[in-house]
């Protein structure tokens, strides 16, 4: 296989030629064929071209899940431009960093997010396109309906960028992970193979499109299999199974919290009334929960490990042994001529550790990001000597099965979102009553993490946790706002005065701990 020639435009257009009348997308019960969607994408490409967008240019999207997101994105793919999708939960200050950093030539917004991203783009003197009528911004959909679907040929190769995925760092601002056309095509090939997806399968997509999961796994996997995407605006526990049943979904992806929420709903005689075969998630479910989900809903849960920096991590074998607690073995491309995905576990000095010992996971494969956008120092630190240093701690048994242990990086994973503890700490420390803040992950009943903020008050000040968190909601996306607050007089520290966060995590439970969710529930019961 010629890896240098791989590009998503050709990958997509080959699928259109092969199955023009097959449904590519289902939205609100309306199917859209591969050919019809291709016409929409061509019109979108023409709009972008006429707006001056060229190959390699970045375009920011702050848009919720919708067919219009996909149409506009595939228009960029057609002309070789690069999407940078902003987390739709971000407030203006959070969105501003990404928009300014990626230096877009244009911004696309929908009605729900125009007030956040629009003014930022105006401040940068960038054109703003709106999905639908807007008094100040160009109506992208009307423009697409008025143009001819003629797209000029653009020379694309595997190393060309297709997407900037911004992911939280342990320190400093978010990193723009540079994903390439080659990575996405290889993922499309691999995903259908790893999960046994065929032409007649239907993939339910309710995870947001600013994530690598929906962009690379679900969408590229569906194209690779000539299958169908059933698109939902967002995850909803009440709508999930009715939509899955109605559309005869066969595959869906999940984060840990999703599965925990679904498993905790009251049992229903219709639980097994579905045709889902595979649920794939990057979170390894506890053994009892996995067995319950599989038995109750009549499906198979497959666990894996992936990152924004590489879609080729680990995955369980759908047809082979699934060892309890394991996230499987390194994912491989189905074509044996494609270089193998290699994994190592190393100690702090870079030496390989023995079987059964814990080490940092290093990966080397042909589907790795090309670095971080405009960040050569962090790129050099993470991508060293051809190996991706994941910052995650794993162990490997004697049969080559890998087990996730912990995050070496100080990242909190909550509701499927990565949270930089440093960012939350800086925000809380800006409150006039707070002298110092230390934020850590603590266990959640929904499998991911909960956020706990240890706070030291300023002299002669008193911290009101409820008021502080209301203040934080105005400055942070809701998923970043801590659930727990603990007021302390000092932090445990190392000899070099660093906060001993491992001790904070171990000693987190306290009778005086403020729990926002309990407080809200108690207020509602009064």
TrEMBL record:
Question: What superkingdom does the record give?
Answer: Bacteria
* InterPro entries according to UniProt: AMP-bd_C, AMP-bd_C_sf, AMP-binding_CS, AMP-dep_synth/lig_dom, ANL_N_sf, ATP-dep_AMP-bd_enzyme
Q: Which stretches make up the AMP-dependent synthetase/ligase domain? A: 13-373
Q: Which Gene3D superfamilies match?
A: 3.30.300.30, N-terminal domain of ligase-like (3.40.50.12780)
Q: Where is this region: Disordered?
A: 322-341
Residues annotated as domain AMP-binding enzyme C-terminal: 423-498
According to UniProt, the name of this protein is: AMP-binding protein
Organism of origin is Actinomadura graeca
């Amino acid at each position: 296989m010629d890896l240098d020639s791989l590009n998503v435009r050709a990958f997509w257009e080959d699928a259109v030629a092969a199955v023009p009348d097959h449904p590519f997308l289902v939205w609100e019960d309306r199917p859209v064929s591969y050919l019809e969607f291709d016409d929409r994408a061509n019109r979108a490409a023409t709009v972008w071209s006429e707006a001056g967008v060229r190959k390699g240019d970045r375009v920011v999207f702050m848009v919720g899940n919708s067919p219009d997101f996909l149409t506009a994105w595939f228009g960029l793919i057609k002309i070789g431009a690069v999407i940078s999708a902003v987390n739709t939960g971000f407030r203006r200050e959070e969105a501003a960093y990404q928009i300014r950093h990626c230096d877009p030539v244009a911004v696309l917004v929908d009605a729900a997010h125009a007030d956040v991203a629009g003014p930022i783009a105006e401040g940068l003197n960038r054109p703003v396109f709106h999905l639908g009528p807007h008094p100040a911004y160009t109506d992208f959909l009307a423009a697409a309906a008025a143009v001819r679907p003629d797209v000029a040929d653009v020379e694309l190769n595997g190393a060309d960028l297709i997407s900037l995925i911004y992911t939280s760092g342990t320190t400093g601002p978010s990193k723009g992970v540079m994903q390439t056309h080659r990575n996405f095509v290889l993922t499309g090939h691999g995903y259908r193979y790893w999960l046994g997806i065929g032409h007649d399968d239907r993939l339910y997509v309710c995870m947001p499109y600013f994530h690598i999961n929906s962009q690379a796994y679900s969408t590229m996997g569906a194209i690779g299999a000539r299958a169908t995407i059933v698109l939902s605006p967002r995850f909803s526990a009440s709508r999930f199974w009715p939509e899955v049943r109605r559309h005869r979904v066969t595959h869906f992806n999940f984060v840990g919290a999703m599965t925990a929420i679904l498993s905790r709903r009251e049992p229903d005689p219709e639980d097994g009334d579905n045709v889902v075969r595979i649920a794939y998630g990057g979170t390894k479910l506890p053994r009892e929960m996995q067995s319950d989900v599989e038995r109750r809903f009549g499906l198979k849960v497959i666990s894996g490990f992936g990152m924004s920096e590489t879609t080729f991590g680990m995955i369980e074998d759908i047809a082979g042994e699934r060892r309890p607690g394991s996230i499987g073995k390194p994912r491989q491309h189905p074509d044996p001529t494609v270089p193998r995905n290699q994994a190592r576990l190393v100690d702090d000095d870079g030496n390989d550790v023995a079987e059964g010992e814990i080490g940092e996971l290093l990966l080397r494969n042909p589907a790795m990001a090309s670095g971080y956008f405009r960040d050569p120092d962090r790129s050099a630190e993470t991508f060293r000597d051809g190996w991706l240093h994941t910052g995650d701690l794993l162990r490997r048994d004697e049969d080559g099965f890998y087990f996730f242990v912990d995050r070496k990086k100080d990242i909190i994973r909550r509701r499927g979102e990565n949270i930089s503890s440093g960012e939350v700490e800086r925000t809380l420390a800006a409150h006039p009553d707070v002298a110092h803040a230390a934020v850590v992950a603590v266990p959640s009943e929904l499998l991911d993490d909960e956020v706990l903020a240890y706070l030291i008050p300023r002299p002669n000040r008193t911290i009101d946790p409820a008021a502080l968190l209301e203040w934080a909601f105005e400055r942070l996306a809701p998923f970043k706002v801590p659930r727990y607050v603990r007021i302390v007089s000092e932090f445990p520290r190392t000899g070099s005065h660093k906060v001993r966060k491992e001790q904070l995590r171990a000693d987190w439970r306290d009778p005086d701990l403020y729990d926002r969710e309990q407080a809200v529930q108690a207020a509602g019961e009064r």
